[in-house]
Write a structure and sequence with these properties.
Layout: H1 3-8, H2 18-27, E1 29-33, E2 38-40, E3 48-63, E4 66-73, E5 79-81, E6 98-111, H3 112-122, H4 124-194, H5 199-219, H6 224-240, H7 246-256, H8 260-270, H9 275-313, E7 320-323, H10 325-335, E8 343-348, E9 356-359, H11 360-378, E10 382-391, E11 394-401, H12 408-411, H13 431-442, E12 446-452, E13 455-463
Parallel strand pairs: 8-10
Antiparallel strand pairs: 1-6, 2-6, 3-4, 3-5, 3-6, 7-9, 10-11, 11-13, 12-13
Helix pairs in contact: 2-3, 3-4, 4-9, 5-8, 6-7, 7-9, 9-10, 10-11, 11-13
Length: 466
């Protein structure tokens, strides 16, 4: 029988006039298939509607990381796809399942734009109704996903504020202490001048200061007990000479490597009356240097955090990039630092891993979702193992945690939108759904979840080139 004869009695097209059926068939093309032919894939843009004429087609979805048969098309007139006929092309207009032929047959394949034009002429009211329902569902879905993104953003912002607060507070303390040290240094220089120190004496004093600085590296490995003994010796030596701030200068000079012989050289250079001013000047220079090192470390930490934020968010960078996968994972771990308190991170990165062409910011959202899920499953402790490897033209990222795990019935639904086992207000059930869309729809990759009580493993496979 011809397609026109079969579709005359098919439930989808039986109410059409002969002229309309002819027009529909003319708008599409007839496609034959044999068993095991793959007709279309889940996640790809549904820009065609497939109307079954004869044969059998199996529809399957990835659920719990495995393909699960969700429907079968065996009756003429059954259809799938064509979603772009009701709205613009985006992630909501993708095939919801993959289609594989299980018995030979044929389909009428009509482009979505042609379908939209035909329905608009034949039944304008019905088209507006369908479009309205579709857009409403898509709007609700988009709003929920936006909320998920805002929740994630809030978590990251809180983590970033916590991470920046510590070095920022350290910087403030160092600046305040540096201000006092600077005043102390200037007052000691004034005192040296008042004692009539001449240029030659000051140059020799500065040489002794620099010599002490060169011994700092050699003494840095000294035990705390040895430094404490030296500190006590220096303090006693200065107390005998009535140095007012001996208790304050002795620890600084002892840590820098000073000994009694060095103190005697200072005394012989400037004389006993100017000894206090000389030691105050030298100790204040070492104190200022130490504070500058602390300030440099704190500012460097803030700078690295800002760079991690840029790496995570991909600000000022192209949407599609060739990136090192591990850099995105590491920046995500930094962003989620407070949430991972108590969690041990074990890394096993392939040092020869090639760069991958990806939507970098979107991929970092995947790492965020996966790491947050692992942290929630482990609670206040546990171990998260992250590994990367290359398998042919694919990069594989694995994340294994020793959290509570998932039973079989939960595992089968982990990629379903809005499905969550978390308490109300603690999860929207969109994290893994969004991750699947990014990995599968946007990158043509695969994401798989395997879990048993006490262990969950997530593997992400990304092609080197999109």
């Amino acid at each position: 029988m011809t397609s026109a004869e079969i579709l005359r009695n098919a439930f989808l097209t039986s109410d059409l006039t002969e002229e309309q059926r002819t027009e529909l068939i003319s708008a599409g093309t007839e496609r034959g298939f044999v068993a095991d032919d793959q007709l279309f894939d889940e996640g790809r843009t549904a820009d065609q509607i497939w109307i079954l004429v004869e044969g059998t087609i199996e529809l399957s979805r990835f659920l719990g990381g495995r393909p699960v048969v969700v429907a079968e098309m065996s009756t003429p007139g059954q259809w799938a796809g064509g979603l772009t006929a009701w709205g613009e092309v985006d992630g909501h207009s993708a095939y919801r399942a993959s289609a594989r032929a299980t018995a030979a047959g044929r389909c009428l394949v009509v482009p979505s734009d042609q379908l939209s034009e035909l329905v608009g002429r034949w039944a304008p009211f019905a088209k507006h109704m369908i479009t309205g329902v579709y857009q409403t569902i898509r709007g609700i879905d988009a709003l929920a996903r936006e909320r998920e993104s805002l929740v994630a953003l809030g978590t990251l912002a809180a983590g970033l504020a916590h991470e920046i607060n510590n070095p920022a507070a350290a910087s403030l303390r160092s600046v305040e202490a540096l201000s006092g040290t600077g005043e102390h240094m200037l007052s000691s220089l004034v005192a040296l001048a008042e004692h009539g120190i001449i240029a030659g004496q000051f140059l020799e004093l500065d040489r002794l200061r620099l010599a002490l600085g060169r011994t700092e590296t050699a003494t840095s490995a000294a035990t705390a007990l040895a430094v404490a003994d030296r500190e006590e010796t220096l303090g006693s030596w200065m107390d005998v000479r009535s140095i007012p701030l001996a208790w304050r200068m002795a620890p600084v000079l002892a840590s820098a490597g000073a000994d009694e012989e060095w103190l005697e050289q200072v005394e012989s250079t400037v004389g006993t009356p100017a000894l206090d001013a000389a030691l105050r000047w030298i100790s204040s220079t070492f104190g200022a240097a130490a504070l500058m090192d602390e300030l440099r470390d704190a500012i460097s930490r803030i700078s690295h955090l800002v760079e991690d934020v840029k790496t995570y968010s991909q600000l000022d960078r192209a949407e599609v990039q060739m990136i090192d996968i591990t850099s995105g994972i590491e920046s995500t771990l930094v962003m989620l630092g407070p949430k991972l308190h108590g969690v041990t991170i074990e890394r096993s990165y392939d040092p020869d891993l090639p760069t991958v062409e990806v939507f970098a910011a979107e991929l970092n959202q995947v790492w965020t979702n996966l790491i947050e899920n692992a942290a929630d499953a482990m609670g206040s402790g546990g171990t998260l193992r992250i590994s990367t490897a290359r398998e042919g033209d694919v990069v594989v990222v694995r994340m294994d945690d020793d959290g509570c795990g998932m039973p079989t019935d939960v595992l089968a639904r982990v990629f379903e939108p809005f499905f969550t086992t978390k308490d109300v207000g603690k999860g929207t059930g969109l994290g893994l759904d969004i991750s699947r869309r990014i990995i599968v729809d946007r990158h043509g990759g695969e994401i798989d979840v395997d879990s048993v009580p006490g262990r969950t493993s997530v593997s992400v496979r990304l092609p080197l080139r999109r």
